[in-house]
Amino acid sequence: MASSFEQSKTSWPFTSEELGFDPGKLREKYREERDLRIRGDGNSQYKDTKGEFSYFVEDPYAESVIEREKLCDEVEAVVIGGGFGGMLAAARLKETGLKKVRVIEKGADFGGTWYWNRYPGAMCDIESYIYLPLLEEMGYVPKEKYTHAPEILDYSRQVAEHFGLYEDACLQTQVTELVWDDDIDRWIVSTDRGDRIKAQFVAMSNGPLNRPKLPGIEGIESYRGHTFHTSRWDYEYTGGDSNGKLSGLRDKRVAIIGTGATAIQCVPHLGESAKELFVFQRTPSSVDVRANRDTDPEWADNLEEGWQQRRMDNFNVLVSGGYQEEDLVGDGWTEIYRKLAKIIPVNGSEKMSKEQIALHTEIADFQKMNDVRARVDSIVEDAETAEALKPYYRQFCKRPCYHDEYLPTYNRPNVTLVDTKGKGVERIIENGLVANGKTYEVDCIIFATGFEVGTGYTRNAGFEVTGSDGRSLEEKWLNGPVTLHGIQSSGFPNCFFMGMIQSGLSPNFPHLLDEQSKHIAHTVRGTLDRGATVAEVTEEAEMEWCETMRKKARLGMRFFNECTPGYYNNEGRPDAENGFLSNVYGGGPVEFFQILRDWRADGTLAGINLKKSQSTD
């Protein structure tokens, strides 16, 4: 990997004097910081939340168990997952005329990520006007530019009510098996509540942030204090609510492990409330200005039809490196491309090679990250702490964060940053943690260590999928996913996959889910309108798509090879088959969404075999 950093082969488009910094030295600094964090165990460094750690995934929010009889009925469609993807799929299917659509969700309510993540300070980091789905259909405008978790959860419930999703929903229910019955051409959906449901169609929206993970720190099982994961926040212990005021921590020494997007939001509240707070950091996040604000009522009242789709598309083009005459969102996500526009005139890029454009983009990235690092110096008073909080990597190597209270928290006398320089906590002992050779005694350890990504699809889903002729999805995808558009796979008729697999990922993830939900609804409606009941992708069509995936796969590989390790690049192993981004469409989301739209516009359901069901009994 180091060869990609060699300076002798780089002819920078600007001099150090023109830029005010040496891009070659900065690139080398990035390499040094990356190498400090490279480790050979990749995702195996994390522990499963099973056995003695199973309490980390229990539901602390459900007021009671939802009692019901087991179901052995038939529905038109089962949607697995009650988050944004599941709600979008169910809503779009109902819009096409399906009446009996059942959502199966392991939580006690709709909301998905926003059902589970109720930690203090939780809020969306993508503008809410493009992040929350179905706003125009709901006639709803969020209260803030970056709205907080309680509003998002409440809005999720409103969506479920509006589209009648509660009527047939199975909440507090986990799918245990999904089997296609060749004799009746139906899916048999089994659950942990004893259900055996027949479904003509199935849409799987299990979500990428589905299984909390724990760090495999030596001695983690020996700790005798209080522990919990941020996705199952223990307000009984901390007191307070999503707005903070964690009164239960006033006499507690608290450790939080992790400084990613979740920690950025909850650390200010922990620092405000705890007697002492120790923040254990491997790699600092990029933390830029949030500048949240209330929604302007006059602006909201004058929105024209189609406003949300236009805004979503505008953002998507900009963060994909494309050109738009106007930046409708105008935030930190799009700023790097505003910087790029200043150094590459729109009418000048056509004369530049891909290598030249890449170098100009890298310069714009350096400029942006220099601003982020300068912001740390302007806020954090202690020079050593400030230096440890500076991110030295390309902006999109890790998910950028935007917050106005995180960095000032380190000016509090009760807050200590424990920077491990990429090594992490050495071990956990009965009464605390050891890092950098020093022991920290604490009453509580909070794991802000994210979710399991980069593992096989069925492992992440938590159940096996068995298609026609008894072949399992795990068997078929043993060497990687095989699909058409990431949405259907031959041998698994009437089954639709949602998420990042062989799809074009946008930072605004709900945009991808919305495009997929429209695609699924179009396919289902097209199947039924043609008098067919079974739709199955041909092997030829999926092989063609896999070849397209292979051709596009290397487009971002150098970028992620040069990145500091994280879940984006599979902990420094971007070539691994099951990495977070290893199966994402390399041409980007704008190109991918257009492929889906063109396919739908063609109107022939190209690449799909349709047939009459053998039996409907």
Tag the structure with descriptive keywords:
single chain, 617 residues, alpha/beta, FAD/NAD(P)-binding domain, seven-stranded mixed sheet, five-stranded parallel sheet
Query: Span from first to last CA?
Result: 59 Å
Helical content (DSSP H or I, runs of 4+): 25-40%
Q: Strand pairing plus helix content: what structural class? A: alpha/beta
Shape type:
globular
What CATH architecture of the domain at 74-211 and 456-558 and 566-611 do you see?
3-Layer(bba) Sandwich
Give the overall average pLDDT.
90
Task: Explain how this protein is built.
The chain is of the alpha/beta class. The chain has a domain at 74-211 and 456-558 and 566-611: 3-Layer(bba) Sandwich (FAD/NAD(P)-binding domain). Helix content is 32%, strand content 15%. The chain is built from 20 helices and 21 strands. The strands form 6 sheets. Strands 2, 3, 4, 5, 6, 18 and 19 form a 7-stranded mixed β-sheet that branches. A 5-stranded parallel β-sheet has the order 8-17-9-10-13, covered by helices on one side. Strands 14-15-16 form a 3-stranded antiparallel β-sheet, with no helix packed on it. α3 (84-95) runs parallel beside α17 (509-529) and α17 (509-529) packs parallel to α20 (589-602).
